[in-house]
Design a protein that fits this description.
By secondary structure, this protein is mainly alpha-helical. Helix content is 61%, strand content 0%. The protein is built from four helices and no strands. It starts with a helix and ends with a helix.
Length: 75
């Protein structure tokens, strides 16, 4: 299980254990991440790969409210 998913589940589990329910406007779609990585043309120059990876990640929008920051982290 990816670290980001464990952290996400940990927050949800802690809140539920405390009797709180978090209302999410969008569910995690981590299954999209392998597709994002596969779409990138890895033979390009490093800046082009980074831009491609960031752009593809942001457009796929697999996570609620973190796509720009997480896309930059992926680079």
């Amino acid at each position: 299980m990816p670290a980001v998913w464990r952290a996400y589940r940990g927050v949800l589990d802690e809140e539920q254990a405390a009797g709180n329910e978090l209302e999410l406007y969008k569910q995690m779609q981590l299954e999209k991440i392998p597709d994002i990585v596969e779409r990138v043309e890895w033979g390009q120059a490093v800046p082009a790969v980074g831009a491609d990876l960031l752009s593809t990640f942001i457009r796929a929008h697999p996570m609620p409210n973190t796509n720009h920051r997480t896309g930059i982290s992926l680079i």
